[in-house]
Backbone:
């Protein structure tokens, strides 16, 4: 399975999508087509935690003062399901591997895998 979860209005997502060979990828724009509980749970199995999928740089994270709260895995899961902006993006799934976020290291590893 090859899938990418992204946000169309995110400049960084658009740049990475242009850089990566997307042949055979199913694309899901998370604002117009929100992720489901099942999709998030399958991402979590590959990522080992909901916190790893959580975007702590989101504007809403600061506005809600979540940094100063003691969040549990259940909290991270619920926030991601409630608000698309809390999913660290883009998220690429290639078979049984997951690539989360836009760090240079993550993007380079993905490019090496998909060519």
Residues:
């Amino acid at each position: 399975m090859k899938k990418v979860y992204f946000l169309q209005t995110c400049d960084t997502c658009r740049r990475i999508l242009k850089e990566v060979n997307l042949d055979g990828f199913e694309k899901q724009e998370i604002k117009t087509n929100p992720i489901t509980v099942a999709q998030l749970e399958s991402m979590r199995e590959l990522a080992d935690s909901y916190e790893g999928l959580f975007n702590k740089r989101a504007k809403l994270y600061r506005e809600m003062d979540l940094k100063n709260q003691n969040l549990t895995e259940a909290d991270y899961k619920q926030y991601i399901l409630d608000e698309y902006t809390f999913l660290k993006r883009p998220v690429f799934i290639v078979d049984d591997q997951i690539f989360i976020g836009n760090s240079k290291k993550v993007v380079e590893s993905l490019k090496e895998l998909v060519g």
